[in-house]
Prior knowledge:
CATH architecture of the largest domain: 3-Layer(aba) Sandwich
Radius of gyration: 21 Å
Number of strands: 13
Strand content: 15-25%
CATH superfamily of the largest domain: Glycogen Phosphorylase B
Number of domains: 2
Strand order of the largest sheet: 3-2-1-4-5-6-7
CATH topology of the largest domain: Rossmann fold
Order of helices and strands: EHEHEHEHEHEHEHEHEHHEHEHEHEHHH
Amino acid sequence: MDLRILITGGGTGGHAVPAIATAKAIRELALEDGTWKPVFLYVGSESGVEQKLAEEAGIDFEAIKTGKLRRSANPVRMINRANIADLARVPIGINQAARAVARFRPNVVFSTGGYVCVPAALAAQARRIPVVAHEQTVQIGLANKIVMPRAARIALSYPETAECLGPSQRARSVVTGNPVRTDGFMDGIAERAATWAGFVSADHDLPAIYITGGAKGSRVINVAVSECAGELLAHCRVIHQCGRQPGDQQDIDLLNATVVALPEELRSRYHAVEFVGPEIGDVYALADLIVARSGAGTVAEVCALGKAALFIPLVPTGGDEQRRNAQRLADAGAAAILAQDSLSGPALRDAIVKLLDHPAQLRRMGEAARTLARPHAARDLAKLVVETARAGR
């Protein structure tokens, strides 16, 4: 017996990674049972990371045109060329998604958020195909606010998110947690990351930090690092995922030019890359501290691995979700927060050094983070999707 599962959601890794992790868990459930097999189709955006992740996982992918609403506290600023152009794409994407749903005939749609999920989820709901909607953050995103009212089941990453739901939606909700990436992510080897980064054995006793602004990087974080690189590297080793920026001017060039001017013993303590790939598990294993944005995926990874974190929430985001994500960990003693409007080279250096000077505190922060983890999130979500598909047959 086949269970046909359409996955939709993406635009960023925060939406796509949980989708792929859940699909892998669904395959594991099918192998354990032996009486059914999953058939997947991933409907995603033309430019997001989800196509690459789906293809790597052996999942058929169909791209649709999407429109993204760029929100602002000032309504006038929302009337701009980018929003108008994206609004023109919405009808095309809705038609493409409707055709994909009609051709694939899914038993269930698993929607993980992001603007790309809305057309496919609504097309499924119009055909009375059950939808399982998953929210990764503490704050419910705009796409899920559209999808959730008619979703068959609602999966939440955090218990407190249920407070944002009405009584009917709350009755259909379950807290599963947020799945993290797999494939060796939880089994990293610190020594392998040190070798990959080119760190010398003489610095073995120095703490290591991993700085990331997400897959696409963060210019404000990158500039702050360049401003304090010399002083920072006097205290620690740094692996820095700086992303790739549009145009010819790349932050990695600025960072490397800054570091190459430093004394040799400091240069060998810094390794910048545009994107950390399969080495990520090793990098996390090496890191004593994570310095990052507080997107849903990063927060889930920090908790799963029990790592101390210094979060620099992205502002603005829908519903101020990154600040709320970070504050949840800070309230548990698992993270410190540096507000973006306070970010500078000296401020970043001081915040990092203050934490590194207290290794016992870092260990306690990591232990606190682990208490917030839900290690079986992917499997729990997989069970929910499969149960919903069977109930809708």
